[in-house]
């Protein structure tokens, strides 16, 4: 006699009910967990609250705050001479290790000393790995508990959308790293963070808390690909984002060509005629690689002396007269802060751009 087979899959009654609640009352289900107070409010049951405030919170936030303040013990940074190239002149450092531990070690000697930081964290796409910061766990224990490590041996855990702490896990990972990164920045320092749609809103909220909403500088949009996947579920996405925050608000302009392919004109019609001296190495030329540009009237400005161009850059100081928006002191200050100048054609419509560098990534 044939008996009906017992199904191998066991129904997740509770999970199914939570999904039904989420369909009816989205605000009552947060990160896969039912907020009973929010559910009561959806049903018209409210209770008076003495103190309400606008804030970002998640399960595990206090632990993330504590993690940012904890010191790193029994760890040190070792100089490896064999892997270094011209360290006496470059003064560059390349460091491998768990990024949170390394950041904390750097904080001991480089507190408030870093001009610019760039990070490229996991985007939390639903199948990403996030860092597990339980440093007390032995390597064998961690391998067993988490099942995998990154290329540098750092313990990781898969953060799936089915997790009840999908967004919370990601925020708990990001908060201490952002907090320590802020400690490393100079007073006029800036941080750039890559991200996509999955956590753009949460990243901005947690950065507002760590750096201050008033220190938000910009959200850059950059084209990731010109051929987005045709099998995309909702729409074919071809852009990602870079958030910029300053440690303290400054009048710095962020229009560097490396970030948004933009530039700004230095000549504006209506400004009084000024004569500016451009130092050697400050101007890039698109229309000439090597040669001499003779002095004389150009369409947009007057060149007061010849320019020697080597590898597309001026190899001597030269003077240019035109309707410039800056004076000589502003020009000098801008060059010191990373501004360069670009002449695209022989019309001499000179524009400005910004140099950017990177500090650390994934």
Automatic annotation (TrEMBL):
Top-rank taxon: Bacteria
Keyword Transferase: yes
Keywords for this protein: Methyltransferase, Restriction system, S-adenosyl-L-methionine, Transferase
Keyword S-adenosyl-L-methionine: yes
Residue stretches making up the DNA methylase N-4/N-6 domain: 114-251
Alphabetical list of InterPro entries matching this protein: DNA_methylase_N4/N6 (IPR002941), DNA_methylase_N6_adenine_CS (IPR002052), N4/N6-MTase_EcoPI_Mod-like (IPR002295), SAM-dependent_MTases_sf (IPR029063)
Family: Belongs to the N(4)/N(6)-methyltransferase family.
Protein name, per record: Site-specific DNA-methyltransferase
Taxonomic lineage from the root: Bacteria, Bacillati, Bacillota, Clostridia, Eubacteriales
């Amino acid at each position: 006699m044939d008996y009906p087979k017992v199904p191998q899959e066991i129904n997740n009654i509770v999970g199914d009910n939570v999904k039904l609640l989420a369909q009816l009352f989205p605000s009552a289900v947060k990160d896969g967990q039912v907020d009973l107070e929010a559910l009561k409010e959806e049903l018209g049951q409210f209770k008076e609250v003495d103190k309400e405030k606008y804030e970002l919170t998640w399960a595990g936030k206090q632990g993330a705050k504590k993690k940012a303040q904890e010191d790193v013990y029994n760890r040190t940074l070792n100089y490896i001479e064999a892997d270094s190239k011209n360290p006496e002149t470059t003064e560059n450092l390349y460091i491998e290790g768990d990024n949170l531990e390394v950041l904390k070690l750097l904080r001991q000697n480089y507190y408030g000393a870093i001009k610019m930081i760039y990070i490229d964290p996991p985007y939390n796409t639903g199948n990403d790995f996030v860092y597990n910061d339980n440093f007390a766990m032995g390597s064998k224990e961690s391998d067993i508990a988490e099942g995998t490590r990154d290329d540098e041996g750092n313990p990781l855990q898969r953060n799936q959308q089915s997790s009840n702490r999908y967004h919370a896990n990601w925020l708990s990972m990001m908060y201490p790293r952002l907090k320590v990164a802020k400690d490393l920045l100079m007073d006029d320092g800036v941080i750039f963070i890559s991200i996509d749609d999955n956590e753009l809103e949460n990243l901005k909220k947690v950065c507002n808390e760590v750096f201050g909403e008033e220190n938000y500088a910009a959200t850059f949009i950059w084209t990731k690909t010109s051929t987005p996947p045709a099998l995309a579920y909702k729409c074919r996405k071809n852009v990602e984002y870079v958030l910029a925050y300053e440690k303290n608000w400054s009048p710095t302009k962020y229009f560097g060509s490396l970030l948004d392919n933009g530039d700004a004109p230095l000549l504006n019609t209506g400004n009084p005629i000024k004569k500016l001296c451009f130092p050697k190495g400050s101007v890039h030329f698109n229309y000439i690689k090597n040669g001499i540009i003779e002095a004389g009237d150009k369409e947009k400005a007057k060149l007061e002396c010849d320019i020697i161009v080597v590898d597309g850059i001026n190899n001597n100081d030269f003077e240019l007269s035109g309707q410039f928006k800056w004076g000589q002191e502003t020009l000098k200050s801008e060059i010191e802060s990373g501004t360069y100048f670009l002449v695209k054609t022989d019309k001499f419509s000179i524009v400005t751009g910004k140099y950017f560098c990177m500090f650390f990534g994934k």
